[in-house]
Amino acid sequence: MALVVALAPALVGLVRKVRARMLRRRGASILQPYRDILRLMRKEVVLAENASWLFRVVPYMVFAATWVAAALVPTFATGLQFNWTADLIAIVALLGSARFFLALAGMDVGTSFGGIGASREMMIAAMAEPALLLAAFSVSLVAGSTQLSTVAAFMATEDVGLRVSLGLALVALVIVALAENARIPVDNPTTHLELTMVHEAMVLEYSGRHLAMIEIAAALKLLLYISLIGCIFVPWGIASGGSGVAAYPLSLAFYLGKLAVGGVLLGVFEVSIAKMRVFRVPDFLGAALMLGLLGMLLLFVSRSL
Amino acid sequence: MSAVDLSLYCVAALLALGLAAIALRRSAAISALVYFGSALLSLVLAGAGVAVLAGAAEITGRVLPVGLPWLGSHWRIDALSAFFLLVVGFGGAAASVYAVGYGRHESEPQRVLPFYPAFLGAMALVVMANDAFSFLLSWEVMSLLSWALVMAHHRAAGTQHAGYVYLVMAGFGTMALLLAFGLLAGSAGDYAFEAMRAAARSPAMAAVILALMLVGAGSKAGLVPLHVWLPLAHPAAPSHVSALMSGVMTKVALYGLIRVVFDLVGPLEWWASPAVIVLGAGTAVLGILNALVASDIKKILAYSTIENIGVIVAALGLALAFRANGMAATSALAFSAALFHIVNHAAFKSLLFMGAGNVLVATGQRELDVLGGLIHRMPVTAFLVLVGALAISALPPLNGFASEWLLFQSVLKSPELPQAGLQIIVPAAGAMLALAAALAAAAFVRLYGVGFLGRPRSDVAAKAIEVDRFALAAMGALALVCVLAGIFPGVMLDLMAPAAEAMVNGRLPVQADEAWQTLVPIAETRSTYSGLLVFLFIVFSATSSAWLVHRLASRRLRRGPAWDCGFPSNIANTQYGAGSFVQPLRRVLGTILLGAREEVAMPPPGDNRPARLLVTLRDVIWDGGYLRLAALINSAATQMNRLQFLTIRRYLSLVVGSLVSLLLVLTIWN
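Output (structure tokens, whole complex):
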């Protein structure tokens, strides 16, 4: 569990580095997010006069919900302790809890920016969450389980092969991952321009240790999605529960490799595409929703598709 | 004393309490007496329900020599009745305790007090009835008493319209029920439930009865398109009555549906189920879309009730589909999801309506756009409403998620259904339910964010004060139930297993033995969810991270003006309001389903008039369905008016003509 928290900022750093190199900039070190978080942690919190207790509780709640969700995704080994606590549907819902709290915090201070962020975030979520659930349904129909450990173990076997439904689910999942992590083309994580920001607008009033917690949670969410896509669609190298501790170093290396590939791909993708207008986003996410539904329908028609 | 006798005594006491409220109307203590009495008697009813469900009391019946002379009235508490008796008793007790405090603010208590305990009693009678006559009589009494309660503030704007629409819809619904029970009784005309259960009927007849029940019970529960009275009547009633109507009475209506469709009518063919599933899923999406754009707190909650009824009905439809295909265990899964959601919805919807009542008491306002900042003025209410909002948005680890999770698990079992029609419909319905769940979260972020957070948008909101202890205690108990039912869902499922077993001949595996209160509906490799562990993990990681950060990093804090990108404004209306929050979603989803139109009136350059944005919403079903129907009936009536002014010859020829045609039909029929 501690591993995902430790790795998450490095992943963000990697994505930023790749983006900078693609733009022929030098870019900050991969370790820069750690330094940012430490710096924020040490600073004092400037709290808006109107902020309620909810505003102060939310960063920890968001972090906790995201962390529990991230810890439940198999990273480099399946069959870990307590992995039966929650399945894929519950992980989706845990991310929903984190989003619910963050949107409330955006509304708490009573500024127009907080409201704009919360409103747009809920619009995006209203499309992205069903799409994610449908992709999850497709995957669990193929594997016959919503348990991620079982799914990952099943996907690693020979008889899965290439399937249309899984391809559709992968595309849907990638689109949702881009939207949920506030990446280009849905949102721009580096902007502070009123018309383009969603996530940043919600957390605009946060500072100091509160902001640090939210940044860690955001990084964790990115790591979660890459781990999720990794463990479902490229499950090779995940150590199964019975293989003992000896297999762990190798599978850990595999996992780090997957994260790095995911991060680099994300960076390259972000550089090569432009941001969308807000009202184009529902079309983009609607495509994910339809793909998810199509994948699921295919599975209902024939289990082998 | 058997459970059914005890419950009948309780009901008699509740009715007597109503009469006492009339007799003692001059006494100052009557309000407290009525509400405390109702709370106690409701608790006894709930206890009787639990005793039967847990197997501590026998399933017994009782025949009273009242009602039709050759029939008497039959009452019986079996597992299903016991479950709904528990819901009625539990919801009734919470609402009554709440009303001890809330009732003091009532301007005309005499318009509420006599009807309230009798309404509770009538709901209990509906779920205990064991013959059609007693059932319909109790149902009608329940409808009329709730109508009287809706009309309590009869001078307020809109109440009379609400009462009128409610009365028409209730009458229409009862007519459909009457027809359904008439068909159930058949030509023999035996009204006892036992005889109806034993009679054999064709699949087509069973499907007609199902359709009639969907109309009759559906209109009371709030199924689209028969939901129109709900968002009118629930806001008009006093808040503890709204809590009862939304949390409990809609469930009693579902009891009627379940009793007939799963029990009395006998086996249904599979082709009857897709209609139920589609109706449920459509109701869920349409209900929550309307909740998203409504700006009256109680109206939002009423529309959200429609959504939840849709979710429950969709689960019931799934249970029907599985049962028709002989998949008893899966059918039990869907059915248990429906029952569990019924309890959960009763808990969090009552809680939220009570929260709305507190806001109404403190500010006198229900419109979101004049509220705001209540979390500072009413901290306890705000916290309890937050729990309710989290629960109703189906967020783990609270109870709303546990029942939705079970529902999704049963959706995922549906590829095993053999019929192609169901295989197309079920995933589509699953997608609609997922969409409804996501939209519900948006609706409740909006309700809570605009109503309770931010800065106050009016003086009354800025000067609100927290309400009394009884109201808060009742809400606290409901919030506790929301949390506990989410953490220990296995206990609830085991409790309601006998009811599911009686209806679908299957049951979920016993959940009590699982470690860490884990839910294992099918098999351990397939799906598991432990609300307790999720709760513990979240609590542990939130507190430990907060402690570590405060201990090791910084704990300094300074208050300052809001940042707002450097341009903070003191005007409270610059915040996002109820309309602006939902604008993106309205634009994306609402143009067809809600008839949402936006018009921008932009004055030409040099003109000093302000630009205006005009948003119009149309209730598609009300305008397109009901008003059109009313216009049709009106014009038909006008046409028929001519018949009043005919000559005697024409009347005679009319009479002869109709007689001949009737005789013709009769001969062809035979």
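Strands of chain A lie at 45-48.
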